[in-house]
Amino acid sequence: MWMPRGWCVEVPAPGKNQKIPIYGALNYRTNKVSYQVGYGKNAVEFLGFLAQLACEYHEKHCVVVLDNASYHTACVVQKFWMSCLVVFR
User: Fold this and answer.
1) pTM reported for the whole predicted model
2) Alpha carbon distance 12, 75 (integer Å)
3) Residues 60, 49: contact at Cβ < 8 Å?
4) Which of 6, 41, 9 is nearest to 23 (CA)?
């Protein structure tokens, strides 16, 4: 960047780095992506996304593959799985 000698140009920089969790699922048969932008990575946010999937696939079976993140294995999430066995496998 050019500036006259003795001048100091202030270059605006973005604020702090932000992390925004996005929960997502891919229907590999139709290539449809379902997603939800969250505020944090926790069981409550994840349950909201699972509820969205349950509504989208309420008349179809859905296979969900997860890693072992703590919010995937939380007790409240396990209870939700048991109540939705018709939809999720």
Assistant:
1) 0.72
2) 45
3) no
4) 41
pLDDT (tens, 9 = 90+) of the chain, 89 residues, equals 567 788 887 777 777 767 889 999 998 889 999 999 999 899 999 999 999 988 888 778 788 888 989 999 999 998 988 887 766 76
Do 45 and 35 meet the contact criterion of CB atoms below 8 Å apart?
Answer: no
Angle at 72 (CA atoms; ends 18, 41), nearest 5 degrees: 15
**DSSP string covering 32-45, please?**
EEEEEE-SSSSHHH
The residue type of 75 is C
β-strand partners of 26: 33
Please state the domain extents for the chain.
22-83
